[in-house]
Amino acid sequence: MRDDLKKAAFYLPHIGKRKLKSILALLVGFGLWQLVRLVVPGLEVHPIYIYIYGIIEMRENSEKTVDFGKRRIKSTFIALSIGVPLVLLSGYLQGLTELVWLELTIELTIILFGTLLTLCVAEVAGCKTFCGLSAAIFIILIVSHSDGETLTYSLLRAAQTIMGVFVAWLINVQLFPYHGEKK
C-alpha cells in the first residue's frame, strides 16, 4: 500500500473548539427544550430547529454569530408573517371549490406569489444573504401545514429558531468568545 493511501485510510479530522462548541450547543439546546416541555408536555422530544440553528450559527467568530443570528431571526419572522396569512387564505379559497385541479392551482399560485413576496420583503429588510432561507421557510410552512395547526407550528418554528440562535450566541459569544485570527 502506498504511503499516501495509508495516510488517507487513517486520517482523523481535527476536533477543535468549533466542533466541541457545536456539540455543546446541541446539549444546551436539548436541555432548554426539556424545560419548555415541562410547561408544555405534548411537544416533541427533540427540538430539530434548535439543533440546526445552534450548529449553523456557531460561526467562525463571535461577531458573525451575532450578525448572522439577527438576520436569521428576522428572515424567519418575515417568512412566517407572510406565510401564516397566506396559509389561511389558501385554506379558505380551497374550501370554496370541490375541484381538485382548482385547489392545486390555488395552492401553487399562493406558493409562487408568496415565495416572490417573501424574497422581495427579505431583501428590502436587509436580509439579502438570507432571502433564500426566508423563501424556504415560507415554502415549508405552506406545503407542510396541517389544518388547524398552522399557527402552532409557526410559533414553535419561530421559538426554536430563536432558541437555537440564542444557544449559539450564549456559547460562541458569551461563554467561549472567539474574535478570529490575529493578523
Tell me what the structure shows.
With 183 residues, the protein is mainly alpha-helical. The chain has seven helices and no strands. It has helices at residues 3-9, 17-39, 48-56, 62-95, 100-124, 131-144, 150-175. It is elongated. The model has no long low-confidence stretch (mean pLDDT 87).
> Using DSSP, what is the number of strands?
0
Judging from the principal axes of the Cα atoms, what is the shape? elongated
Low-confidence stretches: none
Q: What is the average per-residue confidence, as pLDDT, rounded to a whole number? A: 87
Number of helices: 7
What can be said about the biggest beta sheet? none
| Residue share in β-strands | under 5%
Q: Give, in order, the helices and strands.
A: HHHHHHH
The first-to-last residue Cα distance is 41 Å
Tell me the Rg in angstroms.
20 Å
- Helix content range of the residues, please? over 70%
